[in-house]
């Protein structure tokens, strides 16, 4: 019940009640929840108060509105990892079943831009592995990994189709990734990525460029396209004054 004299605002009390319905009540993804009108009547709240609670849960990706149908339990977005882990390890840590579908594998000569990421001259032989990354069978990202051929000769023959790239590099070539950096930008999906991701061309996506190092040597450069409707970015912040103290 809502406590009108309690210290917590009414909309936050209702938010907590709705979360209990989702989590403790065991409502699965896609299950309907009471309408705003029903919530007003059940808890004796104004439409504005109920709307405030619902809007917050929608913003938190716990509920979603479907025009003309009502409100439903949403599939939570996946946080982008802040640690250097493979996609496979990250999905397993989140309790999801990782999957991978190889799209294309080839060896190319790097142009000046790509070679520059490795600190090499143009013409560097580079393995390119394009994969569709899945979580619980759902397309999540298109990933294009670039590895200098000199570091991993015969990579495509020694990696099992759909297997973990990082695991193969470690077990077959002794390459252990220990450092990396990542750049993230938002933009519209192109046709080549939209089709395997199951989204419309022009839909919002995150573009990631990641460089990964092993013992100070850049061993991989990956360009990935992630579905923005399935991912969110969460960053921890510290006060510079506190750090200085």
From TrEMBL:
Signal sequence annotation: none
InterPro entries: Bact_HTH_transcr_reg, Chorismate_lyase_/UTRA_dom_sf, Tscrpt_reg_HTH_GntR, UTRA, WH-like_DNA-bd_sf, WH_DNA-bd_sf
This protein's UniProt keywords: DNA-binding, Transcription, Transcription regulation
Domain of life the protein comes from: Bacteria
Key word DNA-binding present: yes
Positions of the HTH gntR-type domain: 8-76
GO MF annotation terms: DNA binding; DNA-binding transcription factor activity
GO biological process, one term: negative regulation of DNA-templated transcription
One Pfam family this sequence matches: GntR
Gene3D superfamilies referenced in this protein's UniProt entry, alphabetically: Chorismate lyase-like, Winged helix-like DNA-binding domain superfamily/Winged helix DNA-binding domain
Keyword presence, Transcription: yes
CDD domains xrefs: WHTH_GntR
Protein name: GntR family transcriptional regulator
């Amino acid at each position: 019940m809502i406590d009108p004299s309690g210290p917590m605002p009414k909309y936050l009390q209702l938010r907590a009640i709705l979360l209990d319905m989702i989590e403790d009540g065991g409502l699965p993804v896609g299950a309907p929840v009471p309408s705003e009108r029903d919530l007003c009547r059940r808890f004796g709240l104004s439409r504005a108060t109920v709307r405030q609670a619902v809007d917050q849960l929608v913003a938190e990706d716990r509920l979603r509105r479907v025009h003309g149908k009502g409100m439903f339990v949403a599939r939570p977005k996946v946080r982008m990892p802040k640690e250097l882990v493979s996609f496979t390890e990250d999905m397993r840590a989140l309790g999801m079943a990782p999957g991978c579908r190889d799209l294309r594998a080839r060896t190319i000569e790097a142009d000046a831009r790509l070679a520059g990421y490795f600190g090499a001259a143009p013409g560097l032989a580079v393995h390119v592995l394009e994969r569709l990354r899945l979580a619980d069978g759902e397309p999540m990202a298109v990933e294009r990994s670039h590895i200098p051929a000199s570091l991993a000769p015969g990579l495509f023959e020694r990696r099992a189709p759909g297997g973990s790239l990082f695991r193969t590099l470690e077990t077959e070539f002794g390459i252990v990734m220990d450092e990396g950096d990542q750049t993230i930008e938002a933009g519209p999906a192109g046709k080549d990525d939209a089709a395997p991701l199951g989204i419309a061309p022009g839909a919002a996506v995150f573009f990631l460029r990641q460089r990964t190092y092993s013992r100070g040597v850049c061993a991989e450069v990956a360009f990935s396209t992630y579905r923005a409707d399935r991912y969110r970015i969460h960053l921890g912040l510290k006060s510079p004054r506190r750090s200085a103290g």
